[in-house]
Amino acid sequence: TSRAAGWNSIISLLGNLDHLRNHPRTADNLEVIRRWEEVRLMDFLSEQQKLNLQDPDQEHILLINETGNFELVPYQQLLNVAGEDPDIRAFLFTRNERVWVVYWHCRGEAAITLPVGPDKIQLFEELGRELPLEDTEDGTVVPVDDRRYLAFDLSREEVVRLLREAVVQY
């Protein structure tokens, strides 16, 4: 949908309604589509942003920030998260001089323990809507299901290391 917005093009969704109703991430996926379609219809994107979205080597996320406005940010997928768990997706971006990760579980739910204390992390359901963290002797436990955001007071390299060393719990 980001590429389509870069070309000011609509998208179409083709699928089995029963599969869509039963898939745990359908609501998240439809919200992403809604955001991109809304910015396309309101002509929110500058010509430079549209050109950036056309770059096949750079992905972007369309955030709704703390004031309710759209914010376009480049991001990159992190591979080998939580022992290479195939169902966890995580993407890294920088925003307001902090390292952020947007993440979710593709098929259901789990939790991951990050080997770091909760003083270095904030968990958000949406930007500006912080959720509590679970602190254990092994680190900080965060839920992995719907799309959520982690903000870190750490370097990009350290965040990548933490996510790779995270331990998943089903």
Quick overview:
With 170 residues, the chain is α+β, with helices and mostly antiparallel strands.
Please tell me about this protein's structure.
- The chain is of the alpha+beta class and 170 residues long.
- The chain has five helices and eleven strands.
- It has a seven-stranded antiparallel sheet. Strands 8-9-5-11 form a four-stranded antiparallel sheet, with helices on one face.
- A hairpin with a 2-residue loop joins strand 3 and strand 4 (98-105).
- The longest helix is centred in the N-terminal third of the chain and has 16 residues, at 26-41.
- The chain is globular, with a radius of gyration of 17 Å.
- The two termini are 31 Å apart.
- The mean pLDDT is 94.
The overall pLDDT, averaged over residues, is 94
Distance between the termini: 31 Å
- Run of helices and strands: HHHHEEEEEEEEEEHE
Report strand order across the widest sheet.
1-2-3-4-10-6-7
